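Sync notes, pocket subgroup
Present: LS, DG
LS reminded everyone that the earlier model was apo-only. Rerun requested with zinc ion included. Inputs:
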Amino acid sequence: MSENKYYHKDIETMSVEQIKELQGKRLAEQFRYVYENVEYYRNRCIEAGVTPDDVKGLEDLHKVPFTCKDDLRATYPYGLFAAPLKDVVRLHASSGTTGKQIVVGYTKEDLDIWDDLVARQLVAIGASKDDFVHIAYGYGLFTGGLGLHGGASKVGCTVIPISAGNTPRQITVMHDFGSTILCCTPSYAAYLGETLHDMGHDTSYLNLKAGIFGAEPWTEGMRKDIEKSLGIKAYDIYGLTEIMGPGVAYECQAQNGMHVNEDHFIVETIDPETGKQLPEGSKGELVFTCLTKKAFPLMRFRTKDIGVLNREVCSCGRTFVRMSKPMGRTDDMLIIRGVNVFPSQIETVLLQYGYPPNYQIIVGRENNNDTFEVKVEMTPDKFSDVIADIRKKEAELSNAMQSLLQIKAKITLVAPKTIQRSEGKAKRVIDTRNLIDNK
Ligand code: ADP
Ligand code: ZN
């Protein structure tokens, strides 16, 4: 694993000047394509007074209007698709957003590129045809499972599409099938590590050598724990449904930031308040532009993830800029067990069931697994001191939340007026997980 390997050597190591030239050329073409094919976005450009003739290269990027999550909601389901739906061969959806989920699509060519970009990640960490890739990301509308699946198939690895869940069986399958690379969320990797030891085995029971973990924040401390408990090297992968899914950026063996696939995406950091571009190296909101996607090509999508870009030469020889781990968000989105949760979704359910919006979300971590509790105040007319009544109401709310959020919360009903009122901004979320490294 010491020798650096590349999936697309010429592209991954081209000079920064060449990358920028390619990006400029593709930006001009892609901006014209989106302008011509997405009416909603064209109207946005007309309002801003920008036409395709104004965007000739990278220096014009700042003129290109942003896209944000609200635009996806406003045009749900297909209003931002640029290709005819007959050319769309796959849909994916995000794990949940405020109110409505968002849907994205891929042409055959888009899927082929996606697979290639994930293949770069696998090869960067030493994968080859000899590897058995155990994919314990969820399969389905979530991009994790099928994203890694496509990349590993491209490399020619033996894919084990086990999906998430049934944890002891995961250990047995890893052992029996000889899995060498594990792909899942970092919290699930930690849980698998623990289960391995709880089942009375140590790392020698498995043939694993590396793992590719992403889709949620995790710290360097967690990386060390996972590496130790599973006896592997743990690598980070970044992506988001709106842009592509996993593989927008990938970590190499230097384990020091994720290389952004710059031939297919432009990444910028902006000041979230003013929207102004920041110099590389300053902390800001990450913004991505799709340069080659045909079905769902977003221009300057504001991710709300905070990060830093680093263009220093990397020891792996790749020249693509590296992004730090996301260091937080500009909105209140929580990622709990890999699922996006907004406090406003919880509020919607409570209001539907006649509860006041006095609640507290408590997120923690026990044995490397997220815990998720919602304390809800009863109204005087809902108040009851019969335990069975309370349990019934809790179960009802818990089911309603699970069907909206796709994740189970422990609901605790508390007596009226017992949740502390705040004089300023309500502190609705208590998150003790400490997932962001304070560097
Ligand atoms: P996915 O389906 O890939 O999880 P979502 O669209 O549901 O995509 O969520 C994307 C968000 O997940 C990102 O905007 C970011 O906040 C978070 N995320 C993805 N990968 C990572 C990572 N490696 N580290 C930290 N956060 C991540
Ligand atoms: Zn590198």
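DG: Residues 94-95, 142-144, 214-217, 236-241, 245-246, 303, 305, 325-326, 335, 340 surround adenosine-5'-diphosphate (ligand 1) (CB under 6 Å).
LS: The two ends are 29 Å apart (CA to CA).
Action: DG to write up.
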